[in-house]
Predict the structure.
Amino acid sequence: MREKDIAFFAVTNADANALTFQASLLEAPLRVAGICLDDTMNINNWQVPKSEFPSLVSQMNSGKIRIMTDHADSVDSVIGKITKAWVQNNQIHYQGEVLDKQISTKIERGYLTGVSIRGTARKVYCAECLRETTKEKGCKLHPDSGIIVSGLTLREISLVVSPAYANTSIYPLRS
């Protein structure tokens, strides 16, 4: 009988983290879909008009729009990306992928169901008189009026607990 060589090795925390990260890359992302925007005035009292939708869809179809959590500006909050977007029934629909396993489980079980867009507007108008204003100051003539944003550059779409638009959604796509 011949003895076999046995290799002993130690695994450090850094090695374990790297192995966990590599294993997570081997798992397929959760494919998701939903609605991220419609043409109504939201609970924050601002609106994106339908005329802005083609630009937003183009930005989303670029492959550069990330799916994040809670609009946080951190690497850890990036959980996926948008892969496809289109306009249907005065709403922007999207598809994407989520790589975070814990977040994926929450989406699959229906614990997380809403999203919110984040972007920068070139111009802001009073919803009542359509005069250019600022989001911070609002319209002097109509202080209780909502605002309409124009020239929106989309930064990301975040999973949120309480979305400003009531009709937003995220759900798993089944093959």
Summary: Confidence is low (pLDDT under 50) at residues 1-9. The longest strand covers residues 78-88.
